[in-house]
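Title: Request for sanity check on UDP-N-acetylglucosamine 2-epimerase (non-hydrolyzing) prediction

Description:
We are preparing a figure and want to confirm that the structure record we downloaded matches what your pipeline produces today. Could someone re-run it with the sequence below and paste the raw structure tokens into this thread? We only need the token string, no images.
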Amino acid sequence: MSSKATQPVKRPKIAVFFGTRPEAIKMAPLVSALAQDDRFNLLSISTGQHREMLDQVIRIFELPVHHDLDVMTPGQSLASLSARLMTKIDSVLEIEQPDFALVQGDTTTVLMASLACFYRHIPVGHVEAGLRTGNLASPFPEEANRVLASSLATLHFPPTTTSEQNLLAENRSPDRVFVTGNTVIDALHLEVQRQQNPAIKEEIERTLGDLLPSDWRSTRNVLITGHRRENFGSGFTAICDAIARLATRFPEVRFIYPVHLNPNVQVPVQASLGKLNNVFLLPPQSYRPFVALMRQCTLVLTDSGGVQEEAPSLGKPVLVMRDTTERPEGVTAGTVKLVGPVKDNIVHHVSELLTQPSIYDAMAKATNPYGDGQASSRILNAVATLLQV
Ligand code: UD1
Ligand code: UDP
């Protein structure tokens, strides 16, 4: 054996940050790929911006967590959360000195991790880069978080050519921008495949069977999620009023709503919808039963980002309760419609989909504009090229 071959090979240490439910889902395939890749050492850092909702994902994907910064407090303000994140992330960076960091999306975790790394001259790769509405107030504060994260990143991983064009229009260097697809599709492919397993099927039936009537698979179900800060207050009032009216108009349809734990969501939703017979307010669901609900439902009513990407891949029409979206691909493809947090619009479009098969069929045509499930390997290859490993 040559002396060169016996030299220890330095494998760069790659820090992967996640803090909320969607970041963990979208980082899970990348963490698994990194853990199996001889070119790198994985350092997995959970900021704990979320707690129960994050832990559900960590369990399902069996994610390793090397540091849990455990920052969440009930009803946290953006400023206090940011301050806690900055201090705790920097302490870990000081101890671990990673060679490169990966962040995902547009949360406070992303911005603070990017800034803390920048201060320590650690290059950052931004996964799901380049999504833009062009309006800093919507989504709030996510549009600002992702614009600022782009300014700090060394490598940018836009999921689509639309998001790539946004980055190039901001003069990001083309040789640092890689269209990869969205890692949410990597995660979804993995989960849909796992749900073929009889033991997992049984686990899903048990979980949802405890929460819903036993014939839940044979009725028409509208699946609902909502948590955007810009919808707090009047937006949520309009959303709840719309759901209540729809529940009365369509008594045979079930409205299934796993409610986000943010008190700004829990309080109005429980107060206005808690007593309706055909509205089922569930705790936030673990990713596994939630994917099962998406696969079974008739349509999805949401203000979530990730759900806008997943549901069209499963052939489900998506009505987005927002005024703008940074995910225009689904709108262009015709599988997503923006209905705003506007009562009459929501009632009109849900009613239309429930009563007019031609409109339903046109929206349900499955397209998958968000990738082929290979995003993680593209990302790691780009990092390897930059780090010359
Ligand atoms: C955050 C992200 C948002 C993302 C969303 C995903 C920011 C500013 N917002 O919003 O971009 O779309 O996560 O869901 O980064 N809570 C719990 N347990 C949990 C999670 C939340 O009790 O597991 C409650 C706590 O009271 C917490 C509050 O929800 O203080 C708000 O959490 P936070 O992460 O600040 O905001 P989200 O609305 O969840
Ligand atoms: N999700 C989940 N359980 C739920 C609701 C959503 O696992 O009860 C998943 C969903 O499949 C998607 C992600 O959470 O992958 C979206 O998270 P969220 O809506 O909280 O955040 P956003 O995507 O808007 O940032």
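Thanks, this matches our download. The pocket of uridine-diphosphate-N-acetylglucosamine (ligand 1) is lined by residues 20-22, 49-54, 72, 74-76, 78, 81, 106-108, 141-142, 227, 261-263 (CB under 6 Å).
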